[in-house]
Design brief:
By secondary structure, the chain is mainly β. The chain has 1 helix and 34 strands.
């Protein structure tokens, strides 16, 4: 039986407009409102330490791995904020910017990182732009067939995967033309790359998940979802993929030869899934949020294939739909609801969830 956390949240704050995106790193939480207001909050002090406006509204917000910079994207462009002095760079490009992704540079030699490895990829119309941490353009991709919908770094920041209608294309650093193309006729709504680099997955408008094996382009489609698949997330091990597209969260096993011929685990709690976030550390713990306002914590990788799991815990909500979830670390979960409330929760140790 699931249990409900009775203790109050660590802190609670509000935004003036409905949140659309949330990011958490270290001691900071960044939240973007639909009107383009972006607030940066100190979770420990329960205080706002920065804010900026993105004209035209916001679609995504991402904190850099060191929590030193924030990027926000929206229908009319993008903006970057620097923690050290609050400097904000706003670029009104007029191009739809659906997503951004920071490269963490793990595994890159220290000398290379010291030459400005802090970089972020931003979707900008039919291109992906790669910027340094202060917004200077380092390189860009050639135009895709349509608007870029999502992007993800591979090979520890040395390769960029870009999703647009008809294909996922991969670019090496400073190369406009793709070095690998993974075709699929359809609209890609979400992109997830396994941390191992072995698998590339897209969630699609046609209610499917399409999967490519990166080394040779081998393909697999998981179809039959009742709704479009717009949220995908790999855990830190790269062995487990969580997806929406159904009343249940589906969790696919990518260990061994991958999910072909297998069935997913099903996590039953929400009528409509609105957010997914794996707990850092590879313990198989997943947080999910729903349109009913509930937040569930799961031992998502237990049981056998086809198992239907129940939450390990449920967190009391506000009654409004969950807008976004983000882990600031293994013990702090940030939640934003559509009514403008943001809370952080202290979560027990990974083994005692």
């Amino acid at each position: 039986m699931s249990t409900t956390v009775q203790s109050p949240p660590t802190w609670e704050a509000g935004v003036d407009d409905a949140p659309v995106a949330l990011s958490a790193r270290g001691d900071l939480v960044a939240v973007a409102g639909a009107d383009g207001t972006v607030k940066i909050l100190d979770a420990a002090m329960a205080a706002e330490i920065g804010a900026f406006e993105l004209p035209g509204g916001a679609l995504s917000v991402e904190l850099a791995p060191d929590a030193g910079h924030v990027v926000a994207t929206g229908p009319m462009g993008y903006a970057l904020w620097r923690r050290s002095d609050g400097r904000t760079t706003v670029r009104e490009t007029g191009a739809w910017s659906a997503a951004a992704a920071w490269a963490d540079g793990k595994g890159v030699p220290p000398a290379e990182r010291s030459r400005g490895w802090g970089r972020v990829a931003v979707a900008s119309g039919r291109r992906a732009l790669v910027l340094d941490a202060d917004g200077g353009e380092l390189w860009h991709t050639e135009p895709a067939a349509s608007t870029v919908t999502d992007l993800a770094w591979m090979r520890q920041g040395r390769r960029l995967a870009v999703a647009a209608y008809g294909a996922v294309r991969c670019h090496e650093r400073h190369t406009e033309k793709p070095v690998a193309t993974y075709p699929y006729v359809g609209s890609h709504l979400a992109l997830a790359v396994a941390p191992t680099g072995r698998w590339i997955c897209s969630g699609n408008q046609d209610a499917s998940i399409h999967i490519w094996r990166a080394r040779d382009g081998g393909e697999l489609t998981m179809s039959g979802y009742p709704e479009k698949v717009s949220r995908l997330a790999f855990d830190d091990t790269g062995f487990w993929l969580a997806a929406d597209g159904a009343p249940d969260v589906t969790v696919w096993d990518f260990s061994g030869k991958g999910p072909e011929g297998t069935a997913p685990r099903s996590l039953r709690c929400h009528e409509t899934i609105t957010a997914l976030a794996w707990r850092p550390g590879g313990a198989g713990h997943l947080a999910s949020g729903g349109a009913d306002g509930t937040v569930a914590l799961w031992h998502a990788t237990t049981g056998r294939s086809q198992a239907r799991l129940r939450p390990a815990r449920e967190l009391a909500g506000t009654g409004a739909a969950v807008a976004a979830l983000a882990w600031a670390g293994p013990h702090l979960l940030a939640v934003a609801w559509r009514d403008g409330r943001i809370r952080t929760y202290g979560v027990p140790s990974r083994t005692a969830l």
